[in-house]
From TrEMBL:
Subunit structure: Monomer. Associates with the 50S ribosomal subunit.
Binding locations of GTP: 205-212, 230-234, 252-255, 318-321, 344-346
The species this protein was found in: Pseudomonas reidholzensis
Family affiliation: Belongs to the TRAFAC class OBG-HflX-like GTPase superfamily. HflX GTPase family.
Protein name: GTPase HflX
Subcellular localization: Cytoplasm
Binding residues annotated for Mg(2+), in chain numbering: 212, 232
Cofactor(s) named in the record: Mg(2+)
Domain of life: Bacteria
Entry-linked Pfam families: GTP-bdg_M, GTP-bdg_N, MMR_HSR1
Keywords assigned: Coiled coil, Cytoplasm, GTP-binding, Magnesium, Metal-binding, Nucleotide-binding
Residue ranges annotated for the Hflx-type G domain, each copy included: 199-366
Protein's job: GTPase that associates with the 50S ribosomal subunit and may have a role during protein synthesis or ribosome biogenesis.
Length: 433
């Protein structure tokens, strides 16, 4: 948009750096999966060992020359680094390779741009891309830095670079204003759900852990699910009826990844707030992944960034079908509360255990029992039915309704107090939770 850069293409050379700080180290296997998810045709993966990054190229000049020869020999269109490049490093490498150079952040942004389907998703991706691009604007327009001169062209004006910066600022303000509107709409919807006392549960987890497959299995939906990184980008909400709890709202969210670019976290804050405002988080974990403990740490780190680290979490170990001698089960903590559930979203084993665990964790303050309502309380009876909390109804000899209900105590108190009475007036039978 604002660059005069080398054209893109699919033939990619991947460059992975070893020998860095262990905390900053990236996974080469995950890097290849990211490139494949972006649609790249991987020509080669080159691993470079370097303990001290070069300011000019990130890697040594000798290795740069070696890679340049490989780029020409293999007719590579794109060189992707599994690390963050500074704008000057990107410019220097493109000058040597004579092809487009992309870093890890740019690669993830490209995948997000491909996956975005909704208007909100596209806005969020564009915001992240433009903020990333704003640091690189100076690169493409050095030949236009000076103001034009000549007869009829002298006088006040702005350089091409200044024009682009101004247009960029205007577009960023527009997008942020639209996303703020989306944010307020989401908050309004959440307030509505809170007024109706409908609990919200969000699926979170590392990318490709099986969140969308689990979401589809639980809600009988058809959200796009694929064995690729960031298959889900746009959040999806569905109402789910649990036998032991009643209605809940289940949200499928974007997956996390190690060193998720901060620009993406900021751009997707409106979406990620769906998780930070939930009553319960289902942390979906790939039980078959050898590095699952590292992935768990990365997810918890992102949850901390969006202010969701203090929320109740139920761990859902997925992909049980890929393990041997492990059965679906609920593992509990010292107090007997569900802590971990082992399931297979693909073949459906253990799905009922997920619903049971959710109901136990969210049903601490529930009233489960029978209410006796005389005929004069027909309006109150109708309100219980409208809320969808009536499990069955019978009538006694006097014609009063015997409603078997399950609902939060706060909701029961609210409805009954409007009738000017105490809840105990109507309770015929109460099962303690």
């Amino acid at each position: 948009m604002f660059f005069e850069r080398h054209g893109g293409g699919d033939r990619a050379l991947l460059v992975h750096l070893e020998g860095q700080n262990p905390e900053a180290r990236e996974d080469p296997q995950e890097f290849q999966e990211l490139a494949l998810s972006a649609g790249a045709e991987i020509v080669s993966l080159s691993t470079v060992t370097r303990h001290q990054p070069s300011a000019k190229y990130l890697i040594g000049s000798g290795k740069v020359e070696e890679l340049r020869d490989l780029v020409k020999a293999e007719q590579v269109d794109l060189v992707i680094f599994n690390h963050t490049l500074t704008p000057s490093q990107e410019r220097n490498l493109e000058r040597v390779f004579e092809c487009r150079v992309l870093d890890r952040t740019g690669l993830i942004l490209d995948i997000f741009a491909q996956r975005a389907r909704t208007h909100e998703g596209k806005l969020q991706v564009e915001l992240a891309q433009l903020e990333h691009m704003s640091t690189r604007l100076v690169r493409g327009w050095t030949h236009l830095e000076r103001q034009k001169g000549g007869i009829g062209l002298r006088g006040p004006g702005e350089t091409q670079l200044e024009t682009d910066r101004r247009l960029l600022r205007v577009r960023l303000r527009q997008i942020k204003a639209r996303l703020e509107k989306v944010r307020s709409q989401r908050e309004q919807a959440r307030r509505g759900r809170r007024r109706a006392d409908i609990p919200s549960v969000s699926l979170v987890g590392y990318t490709n852990a099986g969140k969308s497959t689990l979401f589809n299995a639980l809600t009988s939906s058809e959200v796009y699910a694929a064995d690729q990184l960031f298959a889900t980008l746009d959040p999806t909400l569905r109402r789910l009826q649990l036998d032991d709890l009643g209605p809940i709202v289940l949200a499928d969210t974007v997956g996390f990844i190690r060193h998720l670019p901060h620009k993406l976290v900021e751009a997707f804050r409106a979406t990620l707030e769906e998780s930070s405002n939930s009553d319960l988080l289902l942390h979906v974990i790939d039980a078959h992944e050898p590095e699952r403990m590292e992935q768990i740490e990365q997810v918890l780190a992102v949850l901390g960034e969006i202010g969701a680290e203090g929320l109740p979490i139920l761990e859902v170990y997925n992909k049980l079908d890929l393990l041997e001698d492990v059965e679906p089960q609920i593992q509990r903590d010292a107090d007997g509360k569900p802590e971990r559930v082992w399931v297979s979203a693909r073949d459906g084993r253990g799905l009922e255990l997920v619903g049971q665990a959710i109901a136990e964790l969210l049903g601490d303050d529930l009233f489960v029992g029978t209410l006796r309502l005389e005929q004069r309380f027909a309006r109150l009876r109708a309100q219980f039915f409208e809320l969808g909390v009536v499990r069955s109804e019978e009538h006694d000899e006097e014609g009063s309704s015997l409603l078997s209900v399950r609902l939060p105590m706060v909701e029961l108190n609210r409805l009954v107090s409007r009738a000017g009475l105490e809840p105990q007036t109507f309770i015929a039978q109460h099962t303690l939770q």
